Task: inverse folding
């Protein structure tokens, strides 16, 4: 069955599911099916293999992305922050916070392993 004039590819559902859902489906499918640029070779050769799995037909690279698009909205925001380097002033605080939380956990693990060794003797 070919797509219809008004509803395009959502015509495959006929009168089922309601027009609102079919319109939302059209918005997602139109963006999903168009070729996306590959993050490695920068050519528009990316194809969606399965939900969240994309591959480039030129450089044969396969990677995980969003369910429908190669890059999620959050991933785009993070990439933009990295390009602008707006996160650099707070990197020191982040490193200190991770070190503070990391050391007590290691101490707990070490004491548990030491107590196991002493109980076996």
Result:
């Amino acid at each position: 069955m070919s797509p219809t004039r008004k509803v395009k590819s959502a015509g495959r559902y006929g009168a089922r599911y309601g027009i609102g859902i079919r319109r939302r489906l059209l918005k997602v499918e139109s963006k999903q099916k168009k070729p996306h640029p590959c993050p490695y070779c920068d050519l528009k050769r990316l194809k969606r293999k399965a939900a969240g799995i994309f591959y480039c037909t030129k450089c044969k690279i396969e990677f995980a992305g969003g369910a429908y698009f190669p890059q999620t909205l959050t991933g785009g925001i993070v990439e933009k922050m990295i390009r602008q380097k707006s996160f650099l002033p707070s990197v020191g605080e982040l490193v200190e916070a991770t070190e503070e939380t990391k050391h007590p956990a290691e101490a707990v693990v070490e004491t548990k392993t030491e107590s196991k060794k002493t109980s076996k003797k």
Q: What stands out?
A: The two ends are 76 Å apart (CA to CA). The helical segments are 19-33, 73-84, 91-120. The chain has a mean pLDDT of 80.
